[in-house]
UniProtKB/TrEMBL annotation, chain B:
Protein name, per record: PadR family transcriptional regulator
UniProt-listed SUPFAM superfamilies: Winged helix' DNA-binding domain (SSF46785)
InterPro entries: Tscrpt_reg_PadR_N, WH-like_DNA-bd_sf, WH_DNA-bd_sf
Pfam family, one: PadR
Organism annotation: Emticicia agri
Transcription regulator PadR N-terminal domain sequence ranges: 20-89
């Protein structure tokens, strides 16, 4: 309207705005109307200018407490309509009522709290574990663009999935492809004996590394220059721990170690590598010290090669270019060495592939030949995550169940609240805030528990998580989030259930409906027990499988075997030392060889059945050097032919095969025949070995895998000496051995171990998985039984009168007992029906990983079932008997 | 006195509402008061008095229909309630009684 008559005099606009901001909404229109009307009158009476002044004056007079108060209180009313959910007064009231209820129902509160604390603590621990597993190798600045070049080779029935590559691969690829910024190689050197002040100590974790190592990976230098540390031959970079051990200082650049063969000059000290690294070395020495690294062959793979690519590199293109160049190089070599073309090899089903393995994936996803270290197990990450989630779910179901059951007690309260004007939504808010409060307390307790439990969890999960990791903001934030979700999830059903009570009925006391329509609660109980049973069956099977492995006949005797390590330090005196040991009473046999079924000292080679170099019918196999005492000492069974013997001078070119290898060469007929192998790739010369014996298969790698082909060659490998002992007095025997050792090298301590212990160490991680599974299923059973206990307690409380009347009318204790236990037993039985097939399926999958495994037997299920039923019965009976034996006079009198 | 308190200005406003019978709203009341009392009357003061009177039950109000005047804004029309009339009556009676009770002497 104003716009249609712009010539009509108008009051100052800002005064109108002032009015709009002060006046109550409901009065604004009429008051402004009056103002404008009076203004129009005044314009005519006193003129425009004065009228405007008067208008402003009048507007200012409207700024009075009366109007402001009316406006604000109206505002507050609308606020209340929207925000009653977070009204501080109401929240205070909710919390007060929640606290009183907790105190009133101490048992239920304790069960709920215990369940939530257990669930949250488990979840937090697992979160720490998973987080740690996922954070491997991420601390390097270039972590997201470092890749390892992996090779995959397939020829004539042999298959290799390798984490290693040919010596010159990194160099050649870097020179050819501009996408590659830099490369570095790593190779295990094995144990080095370092000498300082007349003391010799073995350092086990030593690697050859290119000088570019510290350019690609970030290791913090405490002293020395990372750019040049590995440039010179005989340089040595060691970590803080070793530096302190030998020198008691980290400022030792320029000092040196003198060993028998050479002098190492220390060029750098690095901080100990973070635990979250896929390789873990104490000492690095220059790659130049390793003669093999200078070889130009493309047919031997021994080097873990890492590249850092440019940020803009196209990986797919790079990979295909690498693939092509790799084929070219291989083709040249194949032609020259074994006179075969790459095409022939590919045509006959062979393959030579290259893949780029992202650095950050190596720990969890890579399990190839030539890994620098045992990598993590992604299965554990999945299994733990799922179990943590399940336990939290169990605890949350407990809460849902108990709160719904107890809800009937609070029906009157809800009725009252509704009568007094509570909306349904605000009752939902009330009950959700209760579960939130309880979860919050639980979280608090869980955090405290975390500090207490961390050391034992580290022990259990083979981790070294620190207290700082508990306090990292990421964990705190996600645990708060977890708590929020948990409380909403477990509080939602009770909140909506309770808030739907109709006040008129509830206040009359009519809501037994709450317990009778219990299908929801029953299905939660069924679910809880299903999970418990699955975990129980899983635990039994894991334990049975581990026991099976322990007792399995491995094909050699690992009892009463003592292995002495670092025999190499004795040099030429090793043989006389061995002979001398045989004189000790109690030592039955002794064998010298570094290759043992229980260690990781391995060497493999490809053998051909013809001297021409055709790969047709070749067998790639383990190739161990042993002496004539090896087979009898370890109790390996000779099936055909004979053992090595000093009597035959030709035995230096003899070979003994295991069954699998013999079978690959055509069975027993190979006995007495010759097999061939390349004597070094450079000189292209074949050497032949006569097969003189076949031994029974024995397990020399994990029982997860089938036995692979193996060959023994005759020679002196000075890795270790293995003794078969039969003494009752082992400490005495060992001290005798030690004194003989000391007589030869007084500056070095004797290092020994028992073979059965070494064997068990190989299954350490499985044993730990078993332990963790046991702890978790114990927790699950505990939580589920507590939930059941809560429900029974409540059922008994509800039916106190009924039981009293039944007893008065002549029901026996047994009748009442059966009445109370029956419905809960039905639930457990339904749970079994659900759980057994699921457990069978899951455990079948777990066992599949083992080449040697147990069958899942029916009694496992019976045992789990009986155990679960007894636990449930025990829980229920405790209350049921109490209720059944109660004097009816008391229960009927109570009102 | 059983009825709510009535201030002097409120009493004037209430009387004016009665005088204007049917046509009483903020502007007319203020104009009428100005004309008769020669006081400085503000609209805000009048309105507060009106709302208070309404809260106390002496006047009732209703929003009038929108007209072309005053930019189409509606006005709130006030009328006196039975209680309001009775109260005015009572007050007048009390005053009359008091007046007649004054000794003549004092005016000589």
């Amino acid at each position: 309207m104003k716009k249609q008559k712009p010539l009509i005099p108008q009051p100052p606009r800002w005064a109108d705005k002032l009015l709009a901001s002060v006046l109550p909404y409901d009065l604004f229109e009429e008051l402004q109307g009056d103002m404008h009307e009076q203004f129009e009158v005044q314009v005519e009476e006193v003129g425009l200018t004065k009228a405007r002044w008067l208008y402003v004056w009048e507007a200012l007079r409207f700024c009075r407490p009366y109007f402001l108060k009316r406006r604000l209180s109206a505002q507050a009313d609308t606020m209340n309509n929207y925000y009653f959910l977070i009204n501080p007064y109401m929240i205070r009231n909710y919390l007060k009522i929640a606290w009183r209820n907790l105190l009133k129902n101490k048992t239920f509160g304790a069960i709920n709290l215990f369940g939530l604390v257990t669930g949250l603590t488990t979840c937090l621990l697992i979160f720490l574990y998973v987080n740690d597993e996922l954070s491997y190798d991420r601390y390097h600045e270039k972590a997201d663009r470092i890749y390892r070049i992996d090779n995959e080779l397939k020829f004539a029935g042999n298959y290799f999935d390798l984490a290693v590559g040919p010596p010159q691969m990194g160099q050649v690829f870097k020179a050819s492809f501009p996408e590659i910024e830099n490369y570095t190689r790593l190779r295990w050197k094995g144990t080095v004996l370092l000498k300082k002040d007349g003391q010799v100590r073995p350092v086990d974790r030593v690697a050859y590394a290119d000088s570019t190592l510290f350019n690609i990976f970030d290791f913090k230098f405490l002293s020395g220059n990372p750019a040049t540390a590995l440039n010179e031959p005989n340089a040595l970079v060691l970590n803080e721990t070793q530096a302190l051990k030998f020198f008691n200082s980290t400022n030792i650049v320029g000092q040196s170690f003198v060993t028998d063969r050479k002098t190492y000059k220390i060029t750098g000290v690095i901080e100990d590598m973070p635990k979250q690294s896929h390789f873990d070395f104490d000492v690095f020495v220059p790659m130049a010290d390793d003669e093999d690294s200078k070889a130009t062959t493309w047919l031997s793979q021994n080097y873990n090669t890492y590249i850092a690519v440019r940020k803009d590199a196209n990986l797919a293109v790079l990979q295909s270019k690498m693939f092509k160049l790799n084929h070219e190089k291989l083709a040249l070599e194949l032609k020259a060495v074994i006179n075969q073309t790459l095409e022939d090899m590919l045509k006959s089903g062979g393959a030579a592939n290259i893949s780029l393995m992202p650095l950050t994936d190596i720990h969890l996803k890579s399990n190839k030949i030539g890994e620098l270290n045992g990598n993590g197990n992604p299965d554990n990450v999945y299994i733990f995550s799922v179990i943590g989630f399940l336990i939290l779910l169990l605890a949350s179901f407990n809460y849902t169940n108990l709160s719904t059951a107890v809800a009937t007690n609070r029906a009157k309260e809800v009725g009252m609240r509704k009568v007094m004007g509570s909306t349904k939504l605000s009752i939902v808010a009330q009950f959700l805030s209760e579960s939130l409060a309880l979860s919050f307390i639980a979280l608090f307790v869980s955090y405290a528990l975390l500090f207490v439990l961390l050391p034992s969890f580290n022990e259990l999960a083979n981790k070294s998580l620190s207290f700082q990791q508990i306090l990292q903001p990421r964990l705190i934030l996600s645990s708060l989030l977890l708590m929020l979700v948990l409380s909403l999830f477990s509080g939602a059903y009770p909140a909506f259930f309770i808030s739907s009570f109709v006040p008129s009925q509830v206040l009359k006391g009519k809501i037994s409906k709450g317990f009778k329509s219990g299908w929801f609660r029953n299905s939660l109980v069924v679910f809880q027990f299903s999970i418990t049973i699955i975990l129980l069956v899983g635990t039994i099977i894991i334990y049975r499988q581990l026991a099976f492995i322990k007792q399995k006949d491995l094909g050699y005797n690992r009892e009463q075997l003592l292995t002495l390590h670092n025999i190499g330090s004795l040099g030429d005196k090793a043989v006389s030392f061995k002979d001398e040991l045989l004189n000790i009473s109690g030592v039955e046999a002794a064998s010298m060889s570094g290759f043992l079924p229980v260690n990781f000292n391995r060497s493999s080679n490809t053998f051909l059945n013809n001297p021409t170099g055709s790969l047709e019918g070749s067998v790639s196999m383990q190739n161990w050097t042993i002496d004539e005492d090896y087979i009898p000492t370890l109790g390996i069974k000779l099936l055909k032919g004979r053992n090595f013997s000093k009597a035959f001078s030709t035995d230096t070119t003899a070979v003994i095969l295991n069954e699998v290898a013999a079978k690959k060469f055509g069975g027993d007929a190979i006995l007495g025949q010759k097999i061939y192998t390349l004597n070094g790739i450079e000189n292209k010369e074949m050497i032949s070995y006569t097969v003189i014996g076949i031994v029974k298969n024995f397990n020399f790698s994990s029982l997860r895998e089938e036995v692979t082909p193996l060959s023994f060659l005759y020679g002196k490998d000075r890795g270790s000496i293995t003794l078969k002992v039969s003494s009752q007095n082992l400490p005495g025997l060992i001290s005798q051995i030690e004194s003989k050792w000391k007589a030869r090298i007084p500056e070095q301590a004797l290092n020994y171990s028992f073979m059965d212990e070494d064997f068990n160490r190989q299954y350490e991680s499985d044993r730990k998985t078993g332990k963790i599974a046991t702890s978790f299923s114990a927790l699950a059973i505990l939580i589920a039984s507590l939930g059941l206990l809560g429900l029974v307690l409540y059922a008994v409380e509800l039916r106190t009168k009924e039981i009293g009347i039944r007893k008065v009318l002549g029901a026996s204790i047994q009748n009442v007992y059966a009445l109370l236990t029956r419905e809960f037993l039905v639930l457990v039985i339904v749970a079994m029906v659900v759980a057994f097939p699921a457990a069978y399926y899951l455990m079948q999958r777990w066992l599949k990983d083992f080449a040697y495994r147990i069958d899942i037997e029916w009694w496992v299920f019976v045992a789990a079932g009986v155990f679960t039923i007894s636990i449930a019965l025990l829980t229920v009976s405790f209350q049921a008997i109490k209720a059944a034996t109660m004097n009816p006079v008391k229960s009927l009198k109570s009102e | 006195m059983g009825r709510p308190y009535l201030g002097e200005f409120e009493e004037l406003v209430l009387l004016t509402v009665a005088v204007l019978e049917g046509g009483a709203y903020g502007v007319t009341i203020a104009a009428e008061l100005k004309k008769r009392t020669d006081r400085a009357i503000t609209l805000s003061g009048v309105h507060i008095a009106l709302y208070r009177l309404e809260e106390k039950g002496f006047v009732s109000s209703a929003l009038g229909g929108a007209t072309n005047e005053r930019g189409g804004r509606r006005k709130r029309l006030f009328s006196i309630t039975g209680l309001g009339k009775r109260t005015l009556d009572e007050m007048r009676q009390v005053r009359n009684e008091l007046w007649s009770a004054i000794p003549k002497i004092s005016f000589s």
